[in-house]
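Case study 2.
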Amino acid sequence: MAAKNKSSDPVSGSWPEPVSSRKESKQPMKNKLKLDKANGKLMGVCSGLANWSGMDANLLRIIFVLATIFGFGSAIIIYLAIGLIVD
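Prediction:
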């Protein structure tokens, strides 16, 4: 047997609210990616990514070095692109 719908209107509650009427969409983004030049070594990219993601900055630096070595230098282009575009 099918369960009865508690509301008298079968359509109410079946569609989500429009994005513009949600309360959380009116709040500004709290965790925005920014360069951290005060704690950074070169351009503040790894330090900014660490603040944004919650990871350790030294771990991200090691990941970028290993990606540069094993990725034939493609991580350098990504690092420079992030450094020039962000902030």
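The helical segments are 45-53, 57-70, 74-85.
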